Amino acid sequence: MFEKDILESLDLRNEESYFLLNFIFYKPSNQATKIQRLIKDISPSIFRRIGEAAIKANKRMREGLNQEFFKSYVGLQNLYYMIPVKVKQGDVTKYRDLLDLYDALFTGRPIKKQHLIDKFIEAINVKRLDKEGYNLKSDQDKIDWTLSIAFYLLNANMLIKFFEFTGCLKEGNPLNISALKVSDGIKTFIEKMNYNEQQSAMFILGYLIGEIGNAQYRRLDGNKPILNKLNFNGIDKTKIVRLTNDVFAKLKQEKIRAFNEVTYFELKRLIDSNIASWKLNKNENLFYLLSGYSFATTQPILKEENKHE
Predict the structure, then answer these.
(1) DSSP letter string over 164-176?
(2) Which of 165, 192, 207, 253 is most buried as measured by Cβ atoms within 10 A of its Cβ?
(3) What is the domain extent for residue 128?
(4) pTM
Protein backbone atom coordinates (compact mmCIF):
# COMPACT_ATOMS: atom_id res chain seq x y z
CA MET A 1 0.00 0.00 0.00
CA PHE A 2 2.85 2.40 0.86
CA GLU A 3 4.50 1.77 -2.50
CA LYS A 4 1.16 2.36 -4.28
CA ASP A 5 0.60 5.64 -2.38
CA ILE A 6 4.06 6.87 -3.39
CA LEU A 7 3.57 6.03 -7.06
CA GLU A 8 0.17 7.72 -7.16
CA SER A 9 1.52 10.88 -5.54
CA LEU A 10 4.30 11.40 -8.09
CA ASP A 11 4.19 12.48 -11.73
CA LEU A 12 5.89 9.60 -13.49
CA ARG A 13 4.66 10.22 -17.02
CA ASN A 14 8.28 10.21 -18.16
CA GLU A 15 9.01 6.52 -18.71
CA GLU A 16 12.63 7.07 -17.67
CA SER A 17 11.62 8.41 -14.28
CA TYR A 18 13.34 6.64 -11.41
CA PHE A 19 13.51 7.39 -7.72
CA LEU A 20 14.85 5.97 -4.46
CA LEU A 21 13.78 6.51 -0.86
CA ASN A 22 15.72 7.55 2.22
CA PHE A 23 14.42 6.52 5.64
CA ILE A 24 15.20 8.49 8.77
CA PHE A 25 14.54 7.09 12.23
CA TYR A 26 14.56 9.98 14.69
CA LYS A 27 13.22 11.27 17.98
CA PRO A 28 12.71 14.78 19.38
CA SER A 29 15.36 15.88 21.87
CA ASN A 30 15.14 19.22 23.69
CA GLN A 31 13.49 21.15 20.82
CA ALA A 32 15.86 19.47 18.39
CA THR A 33 15.76 16.27 16.33
CA LYS A 34 18.12 13.41 17.09
CA ILE A 35 18.81 11.12 14.14
CA GLN A 36 18.89 7.48 15.24
CA ARG A 37 19.43 5.84 11.85
CA LEU A 38 19.56 6.93 8.20
CA ILE A 39 18.95 4.28 5.56
CA LYS A 40 19.62 5.61 2.07
CA ASP A 41 18.73 4.76 -1.53
CA ILE A 42 15.95 2.22 -1.02
CA SER A 43 13.81 1.14 -3.97
CA PRO A 44 10.03 1.42 -3.35
CA SER A 45 9.73 -2.17 -4.62
CA ILE A 46 11.13 -3.34 -1.28
CA PHE A 47 7.65 -2.98 0.24
CA ARG A 48 6.22 -5.42 -2.28
CA ARG A 49 8.97 -7.94 -1.46
CA ILE A 50 8.45 -7.50 2.28
CA GLY A 51 4.68 -7.94 1.88
CA GLU A 52 5.13 -11.08 -0.20
CA ALA A 53 7.57 -12.49 2.37
CA ALA A 54 5.06 -11.83 5.18
CA ILE A 55 2.31 -13.68 3.29
CA LYS A 56 4.63 -16.62 2.55
CA ALA A 57 5.75 -16.83 6.19
CA ASN A 58 2.16 -16.90 7.42
CA LYS A 59 1.28 -19.56 4.85
CA ARG A 60 4.25 -21.66 5.92
CA MET A 61 3.21 -21.43 9.58
CA ARG A 62 -0.41 -22.33 8.78
CA GLU A 63 0.85 -25.37 6.88
CA GLY A 64 3.18 -26.33 9.73
CA LEU A 65 0.39 -26.11 12.28
CA ASN A 66 -2.22 -27.54 9.91
CA GLN A 67 -4.40 -24.60 10.92
CA GLU A 68 -6.02 -22.75 8.06
CA PHE A 69 -7.13 -19.85 10.26
CA PHE A 70 -3.88 -19.06 12.13
CA LYS A 71 -4.29 -15.29 12.29
CA SER A 72 -0.87 -13.95 13.31
CA TYR A 73 1.29 -12.14 10.78
CA VAL A 74 4.79 -10.72 10.85
CA GLY A 75 6.05 -7.66 9.05
CA LEU A 76 7.38 -4.16 9.53
CA GLN A 77 4.71 -3.08 12.02
CA ASN A 78 4.69 -5.96 14.50
CA LEU A 79 8.44 -6.58 14.27
CA TYR A 80 8.66 -3.87 16.95
CA TYR A 81 6.71 -6.08 19.37
CA MET A 82 8.95 -9.12 18.78
CA ILE A 83 12.34 -7.64 19.73
CA PRO A 84 12.79 -6.44 23.33
CA VAL A 85 13.39 -2.70 23.57
CA LYS A 86 13.67 -0.71 26.79
CA VAL A 87 11.02 1.99 27.18
CA LYS A 88 11.46 4.61 29.91
CA GLN A 89 8.69 7.14 30.49
CA GLY A 90 7.48 6.65 26.93
CA ASP A 91 11.00 7.15 25.53
CA VAL A 92 12.51 4.22 23.63
CA THR A 93 16.09 3.39 24.62
CA LYS A 94 18.51 0.60 23.65
CA TYR A 95 16.93 0.32 20.22
CA ARG A 96 20.01 -0.57 18.16
CA ASP A 97 19.08 -4.25 17.63
CA LEU A 98 15.65 -3.29 16.34
CA LEU A 99 17.01 -0.65 13.97
CA ASP A 100 19.61 -3.13 12.71
CA LEU A 101 16.77 -5.47 11.70
CA TYR A 102 14.88 -2.70 9.87
CA ASP A 103 18.14 -1.73 8.18
CA ALA A 104 18.70 -5.33 7.07
CA LEU A 105 15.17 -5.63 5.69
CA PHE A 106 15.47 -2.46 3.61
CA THR A 107 19.00 -3.10 2.33
CA GLY A 108 19.05 -6.92 2.07
CA ARG A 109 21.93 -7.13 4.51
CA PRO A 110 22.29 -10.58 6.15
CA ILE A 111 21.10 -11.14 9.73
CA LYS A 112 22.86 -13.37 12.25
CA LYS A 113 20.38 -16.04 13.24
CA GLN A 114 22.08 -16.76 16.57
CA HIS A 115 21.77 -13.13 17.60
CA LEU A 116 18.10 -13.11 16.58
CA ILE A 117 17.47 -16.18 18.75
CA ASP A 118 19.31 -14.48 21.64
CA LYS A 119 16.80 -11.62 21.40
CA PHE A 120 13.89 -14.10 21.36
CA ILE A 121 15.18 -15.71 24.57
CA GLU A 122 15.54 -12.27 26.16
CA ALA A 123 11.92 -11.49 25.19
CA ILE A 124 10.71 -14.79 26.65
CA ASN A 125 12.30 -13.95 29.98
CA VAL A 126 10.78 -10.46 29.93
CA LYS A 127 7.35 -12.07 29.49
CA ARG A 128 7.98 -14.90 31.95
CA LEU A 129 9.16 -12.58 34.73
CA ASP A 130 6.69 -9.82 33.79
CA LYS A 131 9.52 -7.28 33.62
CA GLU A 132 8.45 -3.66 33.45
CA GLY A 133 9.83 -1.08 31.06
CA TYR A 134 9.72 -3.06 27.81
CA ASN A 135 7.79 -2.82 24.56
CA LEU A 136 6.49 -6.40 24.55
CA LYS A 137 3.06 -6.04 26.11
CA SER A 138 0.20 -7.44 24.04
CA ASP A 139 -3.28 -8.90 24.43
CA GLN A 140 -1.65 -12.32 24.84
CA ASP A 141 0.01 -11.10 28.03
CA LYS A 142 -3.43 -11.03 29.66
CA ILE A 143 -3.43 -14.84 29.57
CA ASP A 144 -1.26 -17.30 31.49
CA TRP A 145 2.45 -16.59 30.87
CA THR A 146 3.03 -20.12 29.60
CA LEU A 147 0.46 -19.56 26.85
CA SER A 148 1.82 -16.09 26.16
CA ILE A 149 5.31 -17.41 25.44
CA ALA A 150 3.86 -20.35 23.48
CA PHE A 151 2.16 -18.01 21.00
CA TYR A 152 5.23 -15.76 21.01
CA LEU A 153 7.41 -18.73 20.00
CA LEU A 154 5.14 -19.56 17.07
CA ASN A 155 5.45 -15.95 15.90
CA ALA A 156 9.23 -16.08 16.43
CA ASN A 157 9.47 -19.13 14.16
CA MET A 158 7.32 -17.32 11.62
CA LEU A 159 9.60 -14.29 11.85
CA ILE A 160 12.61 -16.49 11.05
CA LYS A 161 10.80 -17.73 7.92
CA PHE A 162 9.95 -14.12 7.07
CA PHE A 163 13.63 -13.15 7.17
CA GLU A 164 14.48 -16.19 5.06
CA PHE A 165 11.92 -15.21 2.43
CA THR A 166 13.30 -11.65 2.32
CA GLY A 167 16.80 -13.06 1.74
CA CYS A 168 18.22 -11.78 5.03
CA LEU A 169 18.64 -15.31 6.42
CA LYS A 170 19.80 -18.47 4.67
CA GLU A 171 17.71 -21.59 5.07
CA GLY A 172 19.55 -24.46 6.76
CA ASN A 173 19.93 -28.09 5.74
CA PRO A 174 16.61 -29.67 6.73
CA LEU A 175 16.19 -33.12 8.19
CA ASN A 176 14.85 -35.82 5.89
CA ILE A 177 11.57 -36.52 7.68
CA SER A 178 10.67 -39.65 5.70
CA ALA A 179 12.33 -41.99 8.23
CA LEU A 180 11.31 -39.98 11.30
CA LYS A 181 9.12 -42.04 13.66
CA VAL A 182 6.86 -39.34 15.06
CA SER A 183 3.31 -38.19 14.35
CA ASP A 184 2.47 -36.60 11.01
CA GLY A 185 1.79 -33.30 12.78
CA ILE A 186 5.31 -33.14 14.22
CA LYS A 187 6.80 -34.20 10.88
CA THR A 188 4.93 -31.47 9.05
CA PHE A 189 6.03 -28.71 11.41
CA ILE A 190 9.67 -29.83 11.29
CA GLU A 191 9.53 -29.96 7.49
CA LYS A 192 7.87 -26.56 7.06
CA MET A 193 10.31 -24.88 9.46
CA ASN A 194 13.29 -26.61 7.77
CA TYR A 195 14.75 -27.86 11.06
CA ASN A 196 17.95 -29.87 10.90
CA GLU A 197 18.54 -33.02 12.97
CA GLN A 198 19.67 -31.32 16.20
CA GLN A 199 16.97 -28.64 16.00
CA SER A 200 14.41 -31.42 15.43
CA ALA A 201 15.68 -33.32 18.48
CA MET A 202 15.19 -30.28 20.70
CA PHE A 203 11.77 -29.63 19.16
CA ILE A 204 10.66 -33.21 19.91
CA LEU A 205 12.03 -32.95 23.47
CA GLY A 206 10.02 -29.74 23.89
CA TYR A 207 6.94 -31.39 22.40
CA LEU A 208 7.09 -34.19 24.99
CA ILE A 209 7.54 -31.60 27.76
CA GLY A 210 4.47 -29.87 26.36
CA GLU A 211 2.47 -33.13 26.49
CA ILE A 212 3.55 -33.64 30.11
CA GLY A 213 2.59 -30.03 30.83
CA ASN A 214 -0.85 -30.54 29.27
CA ALA A 215 -1.42 -33.60 31.47
CA GLN A 216 -0.24 -31.76 34.59
CA TYR A 217 -2.40 -28.75 33.70
CA ARG A 218 -5.51 -30.95 33.73
CA ARG A 219 -4.49 -32.83 36.87
CA LEU A 220 -3.09 -29.95 38.93
CA ASP A 221 -5.63 -27.20 38.28
CA GLY A 222 -3.60 -25.20 35.78
CA ASN A 223 -0.07 -25.83 37.11
CA LYS A 224 2.81 -27.26 35.07
CA PRO A 225 5.65 -28.33 37.42
CA ILE A 226 7.59 -29.79 34.47
CA LEU A 227 8.53 -26.23 33.46
CA ASN A 228 10.50 -25.89 36.70
CA LYS A 229 13.04 -28.27 35.20
CA LEU A 230 13.90 -25.78 32.46
CA ASN A 231 16.68 -23.23 32.73
CA PHE A 232 15.29 -20.19 30.92
CA ASN A 233 18.79 -18.73 30.70
CA GLY A 234 19.79 -21.48 28.28
CA ILE A 235 20.24 -25.26 28.22
CA ASP A 236 23.64 -26.92 27.80
CA LYS A 237 24.45 -30.44 26.58
CA THR A 238 24.54 -31.91 30.09
CA LYS A 239 21.07 -30.56 30.80
CA ILE A 240 19.76 -31.99 27.51
CA VAL A 241 20.74 -35.51 28.59
CA ARG A 242 19.27 -34.99 32.07
CA LEU A 243 16.01 -33.59 30.66
CA THR A 244 15.69 -36.51 28.25
CA ASN A 245 15.85 -38.94 31.16
CA ASP A 246 13.49 -36.83 33.29
CA VAL A 247 10.94 -36.74 30.49
CA PHE A 248 10.77 -40.53 30.31
CA ALA A 249 10.02 -40.72 34.04
CA LYS A 250 7.40 -37.96 33.84
CA LEU A 251 5.62 -39.60 30.89
CA LYS A 252 5.22 -42.68 33.05
CA GLN A 253 4.15 -40.67 36.10
CA GLU A 254 1.45 -38.80 34.13
CA LYS A 255 0.26 -42.10 32.61
CA ILE A 256 0.85 -40.93 29.03
CA ARG A 257 3.96 -42.95 28.20
CA ALA A 258 2.01 -45.44 26.04
CA PHE A 259 0.83 -42.57 23.80
CA ASN A 260 4.32 -41.10 23.46
CA GLU A 261 6.69 -44.06 23.70
CA VAL A 262 7.58 -44.23 19.99
CA THR A 263 8.17 -40.46 19.93
CA TYR A 264 10.38 -40.67 23.02
CA PHE A 265 12.60 -43.40 21.60
CA GLU A 266 12.95 -41.45 18.36
CA LEU A 267 14.06 -38.48 20.48
CA LYS A 268 16.54 -40.72 22.31
CA ARG A 269 17.95 -41.95 19.00
CA LEU A 270 18.45 -38.40 17.73
CA ILE A 271 20.06 -37.24 20.98
CA ASP A 272 22.41 -40.23 21.27
CA SER A 273 23.57 -39.96 17.65
CA ASN A 274 24.24 -36.20 17.87
CA ILE A 275 25.31 -35.35 21.41
CA ALA A 276 29.05 -35.91 20.83
CA SER A 277 29.07 -33.42 17.94
CA TRP A 278 26.41 -31.02 19.24
CA LYS A 279 26.56 -27.61 17.50
CA LEU A 280 23.63 -25.65 18.94
CA ASN A 281 24.45 -23.20 21.72
CA LYS A 282 22.48 -23.01 24.97
CA ASN A 283 20.04 -20.35 23.71
CA GLU A 284 19.40 -22.24 20.48
CA ASN A 285 18.74 -25.39 22.50
CA LEU A 286 16.18 -23.54 24.60
CA PHE A 287 14.58 -21.86 21.59
CA TYR A 288 13.92 -25.08 19.67
CA LEU A 289 12.84 -26.89 22.84
CA LEU A 290 10.34 -24.14 23.64
CA SER A 291 9.17 -24.22 20.02
CA GLY A 292 8.23 -27.88 20.52
CA TYR A 293 6.57 -27.03 23.83
CA SER A 294 4.61 -24.27 22.07
CA PHE A 295 3.46 -26.64 19.34
CA ALA A 296 2.11 -29.17 21.88
CA THR A 297 0.54 -26.44 24.03
CA THR A 298 -1.24 -24.48 21.31
CA GLN A 299 -2.49 -27.35 19.13
CA PRO A 300 -5.63 -28.04 21.22
CA ILE A 301 -6.43 -24.31 21.39
CA LEU A 302 -5.93 -23.72 17.67
CA LYS A 303 -7.98 -26.77 16.73
CA GLU A 304 -10.86 -25.47 18.84
CA GLU A 305 -10.59 -22.04 17.20
CA ASN A 306 -10.51 -23.70 13.79
CA LYS A 307 -13.81 -25.47 14.57
CA HIS A 308 -15.44 -22.14 15.45
CA GLU A 309 -14.15 -20.56 12.26
Answers:
(1) HHHTSS-------
(2) 207
(3) 1-171
(4) 0.89
